[in-house]
Specification:
The chain is of the alpha+beta class and 483 residues long. It has helices at residues 2-37, 47-68, 75-85, 112-122, 146-150, 153-158, 179-186, 204-209, 225-240, 248-259, 279-282, 308-321, 358-361; strands at 101-108, 129-135, 139-140, 143-144, 167-172, 176-177, 196-198, 221-224, 264-265, 274-276, 292-293, 329-334, 339-344, 348-353, 368-370, 396-406, 411-418, 438-443, 457-462, 469-475. 32% of the residues lie in helices and 21% in strands. It is built from 13 helices and 20 strands. Strands 12-13-14-16-17-18-20-19 form an eight-stranded mixed barrel. A six-stranded mixed beta sheet has the order 2-1-5-8-7-9. It has a two-stranded antiparallel ribbon with strand order 3-4.
C-alpha cells in the first residue's frame, strides 16, 4: 500500500506544477497584450521609447502608401483614415453669407419716423433680408405687454417661409449693425446646430436683475435656423409660463433655458446700457469684431458737433474701407517725446503725456455714466479706469476727419484732427501734443483678421517732416513685437 500512496502523491504534485505554469504563462500573455494596446502612451524621455514612437509613425506612413498607392482600391479605408486625423470641428469655418441671414427688427410705431434713419445707415437694399415689426408700446404692472408680441418676432419671421436661411438676427430700431462683421461672426458657428448668440449688458445691476445668461435684445442676438424651428413649436406655451417677466429678451432666454440651449457670448454685440459719451468704451474696444451699437438716442453722438445720424454716417466712411478693423485698438509709444498713443482705428486717436502701460490703456475710461445715471465704477460688468485728473495727463483727442483707400499702395489713409477744446496748463518740461494738429494713420485692410487667433494690432511712429503732423502705421505685429 505504501508505494501506491507515494505514486498518488507524486502524480498530484505533477498536475499542480503544470497548472501553476499554465497560470503564469497566461498572465504574462495578458500583460503583453495590454502593453501593446497602450503603446502610444510611452514615456518619451527615454531613447528606446522615442524610437518606438518613430517606428509607429513609419508604419502608419507605409500603411497610408499601401492604401492610396494602388490608384484604385482602399477608398473606404482612406476615408476612415481621414476621419481619424481630421481637425476638430471648432477649427472649421462655414461659408455663411449675408444672403443666409434674416434680420428681425423690433420697432416702435411712435418713433419709427425718427429711428428708421438709423436702419437706413446699415441696411443694404437688394442685399439685406429682413422684416421690421412695428408695435405700440404700453405697459402694465408686470412689464411691457408689447414685449409679448416682440418676443415672437423670431417665430413669426420663420413662418414667412423665406428660402436659404441659416440665421435669424434680432435687434431694435435704435440699433446699428456692422453687417459684414455679423457675417464674419456667424461664420464661426455651425448653422445646422442649436446656437443662441449674443451678449450681456454693460450694467452689472441690469444683469443681476434680469440675467447674465440672457442675450440683450437691443444689442442684438442671433438664433440658428434649427433652433428657431424648435422655438416656434413651444414658444406660445413657454410665454404663458412667464407672465411676470419684463421684456421680450428675458422671455426669449426663459424659453432657451427650457430648450436647454445656453447663451454663446460674443462681446461685439453692444447693448450700451449707459448714458453720456461712448469715447471711453469705443476708444478701448475689446479684441473682437464690432457687431452692433445700441441706445443711440440715449448716448451722445459718437462724433462731437454732429447730429446722431450724421455722426454715424461719418463713422460708416471708415466701415466702408475696413469693416473688420473698425474700432480696433492699437497701442504704441513715441519714445523721443515720452507720449503714450492709443489708436481706435476709424474713430479716434488719443495722445497722452508720459508712459502708460497697455494694461491701463486697454481699460475703458469712464467718460459715461451707468444706466442709473451715477458715476459708480462698481456698477459695470467689466473693468474701467477713471478719467485722468492731472492737468498734464489729460488726453489729446483726435477724431477721424477723413479716410480714403490708396489702390496703388493697397492701404487706407486716414486723417484725424485734434478736438477743438481748451487744455489745462501743464508744467512738465516735455513736448506737448498740443503742437500736433493732425495725425495720419496708415493701414492695410485685413478682411481675414478674425479667421486668425485674436490679437491687438501693433502701431509704429513714422518719421515726419512737419512737427504739426504725426504719422502712424497700424497693422499686424511682427515677430517679437510688443506694444
Amino acid at each position: 500500500m505504501r508505494p501506491l500512496i507515494g505514486f498518488k502523491t507524486l502524480l498530484t504534485s505533477f498536475f499542480l506544477m503544470i497548472s501553476m505554469l499554465y497560470i503564469l504563462y497566461s498572465s504574462n500573455l495578458l500583460l503583453n497584450n495590454d502593453h501593446h494596446g497602450c503603446s502610444l502612451s510611452l514615456d518619451l524621455s527615454s531613447d528606446e521609447n522615442l524610437a518606438a514612437v518613430n517606428n509607429f509613425s513609419s508604419t502608419l506612413h507605409l500603411h497610408e502608401k499601401d492604401m492610396g498607392g494602388g490608384g484604385g482600391g482602399g477608398g473606404e479605408e482612406e476615408e476612415s483614415l481621414k476621419t481619424v486625423i481630421s481637425l476638430p470641428q471648432s477649427s472649421q469655418r462655414f461659408d455663411t453669407e449675408l444672403k443666409h441671414i434674416v434680420f428681425g427688427i423690433a420697432a416702435s410705431s411712435n418713433l419709427w419716423e425718427k429711428r428708421k434713419e438709423y436702419i437706413k445707415l446699415w441696411w443694404r437694399p437688394k442685399e439685406t433680408r429682413g422684416v421690421v415689426w412695428l408695435d405700440k408700446r404700453y405697459t402694465n404692472r408686470q412689464g411691457q405687454r408689447a414685449a409679448l408680441r416682440i418676443s415672437r418676432v423670431v417665430s413669426e419671421t420663420l413662418r414667412l417661409g423665406m428660402k436659404d436661411v441659416r440665421w435669424f438676427v434680432m435687434g431694435d430700431d435704435d440699433t446699428v449693425f456692422i453687417v459684414d462683421n455679423v457675417v464674419r461672426l456667424l461664420s464661426k458657428y455651425d448653422h445646422r446646430q442649436f446656437y443662441y448668440v449674443g451678449s450681456s449688458s454693460e450694467s452689472h445691476v441690469q444683469n443681476i436683475y434680469f440675467s447674465y445668461a440672457m442675450a440683450y435684445g437691443g444689442g442684438g442676438f442671433a438664433i440658428s435656423y434649427p433652433l428657431a424651428e424648435e422655438l416656434a413649436k413651444m414658444q406660445d406655451k413657454c410665454i404663458q409660463r412667464y407672465p411676470g417677466l419684463y421684456g421680450s429678451d428675458d422671455r426669449m432666454q426663459a424659453c432657451m433655458s427650457e430648450l436647454g440651449v445656453p447663451l454663446t457670448k460674443e462681446p461685439g454685440f453692444h447693448q450700451y446700457d449707459v448714458y453720456g459719451d461712448l469715447l471711453g468704451l469705443l476708444g478701448a474696444h475689446p479684441v473682437t469684431p464690432l457687431v452692433s451699437i445700441h441706445h443711440l438716442d440715449v448716448v451722445e453722438p459718437v462724433f462731437p458737433r454732429m447730429t446722431r445720424v450724421r455722426a454715424l454716417r461719418h463713422l460708416f466712411e471708415s466701415v466702408k474701407h475696413d469693416s473688420a478693423s473698425i474700432m480696433q485698438q492699437s497701442i504704441c509709444y513715441d519714445k523721443r517725446r515720452s507720449w503714450s498713443i492709443s489708436v481706435s482705428w476709424g474713430y479716434v486717436v488719443q495722445v497722452i503725456r508720459g508712459v502708460i502701460s497697455p494694461r491701463e490703456l486697454e481699460m475703458p475710461t469712464r467718460t459715461f455714466l451707468n444706466w442709473y445715471r451715477r458715476a459708480d465704477y462698481t456698477a459695470y460688468a467689466f473693468n474701467t479706469r477713471p478719467v485722468m485728473k492731472h492737468p498734464c495727463q489729460k488726453p489729446f483727442i483726435y477724431y477721424m476727419n477723413s479716410v480714403r483707400y490708396d489702390r496703388a499702395k493697397k492701404q487706407t489713409f486716414g486723417i484725424y484732427s485734434r478736438q477743438r477744446s481748451r487744455y489745462p496748463r501743464c508744467r512738465w518740461k516735455m513736448d506737448s501734443p498740443e503742437n500736433v494738429n493732425s495725425i495720419v494713420v496708415l493701414k492695410r485692410p485685413d478682411g481675414n483678421r478674425w479667421q486668425k487667433s485674436p490679437r491687438r494690432d501693433c502701431c509704429r511712429i513714422l518719421p515726419s517732416r512737419k512737427s504739426s503732423v504725426l504719422y502712424i502705421w497700424v497693422g499686424t505685429c511682427r515677430n517679437g513685437e510688443i506694444s
